[in-house]
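Field reference: sequence -> structure
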Amino acid sequence: MARNDEDLLEKKLKQLPQFRDDQSKEELYQKISRQVERESPRNKIRRQWLVPTMASAFGIVLLVLIVKGSFIDMQYSQEESSSGMEESALSDEANMKRSTKDELITGEQELNQSLDKSSKEDSTVLMKALNSKAAYDNNANVAFIPVAALTNSAQYIVPISIVDPTSTKKEVLGEYYNSINAKIKEFGNSSVAIEEELGISLFPFEGITFNLNQDEQVVQLSFDEGYQMPGGSSIQGLFDPILSIMFSPQNIKQAILTNVKEGQLGNMGVIEEIQLDPLNNYAYKIYRPKSNMGYEYLVPTQKVDTLDEAFAQMRISEPEFEVYASIPEETDLHVTTEKEQISFSFSNASIFGNDQTTLDMIDSLLLTAKSFGYRTVRFELPFEKLGPYNLTKAIEVPDGANPFILK
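Structure field:
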């Protein structure tokens, strides 16, 4: 630096304001010492340690956070996994329940189908087991023999159709008519009275011999010398209609009586012939006796003038004679006729089912229709089949009633 410059600097320094320090030398020394102490290497080392320590602490905190986060994630993952397992378990359980439910539904459906099939089979068996009291002579190779007995009160005739699958009518007709009561007894227990076993009484045919001449449409009755018709107007009054029931189906028009003596026929006196006419205009009801075998029969009861009177009678029970209505009282019956066909419909058809009561009504209406000269009958019912009948078609009237089928 040049001299001139030094002089100029000195001059300027002198122009600066003056400062006065009243501190002692000792005070000044202590301050300087403290300052030096602050800036000593020890303090520098301490500050240098503090920086990595803070970094480490931050790292530790960060590590803790990371570990904690990882733990949380792991815990969440475990929870999620557990939840997933639970959901899977629940799903599996739901699937199992659904599967079980499906199996139950399937099983129930199969059971229902099985029950339905069983029900149909049982229904078929039941329908087959229903006892039709109408009889048909529609097989030339099977003997069909109309005979008759009495109710236990002897109030009404019980028509019986003996059916013998082992013989033809031509082969056995005479034999059967000459052993009527013996043949009927074959259907009961020989050690038990017929009245108790079958619920019917036998007409006194023993001592009468029958001889049919179908060419001349005549049956001859020959009476044994010791024959005696039981007393009482009821039995004697049924003699003519019994002969009609038995022989009219064979196209027999007349019965000729031979060897009849005074008093043998009771109040009937001595007669030589009886005109045999079909039983016309009769109302058929159910005879339900207290028999061991539980037999029931359809019987012609009152002779009437019109169908309406017949239907009215068929609704009336006569418990004193063990005879009961064949048409349920609540039946709302409608009738239409066309030539030889009669049709029955019912406003309350829903009351009828595939049961014996309905079948008895149908049988009784068929037999009653026959007694009024009709050849076919139609029924309007809420089912197509009942017992032996196809209800969708016209049904031919029966040839007889109460079949007894020989085994």
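Note: The chain has two domains: 51-129, 134-405.
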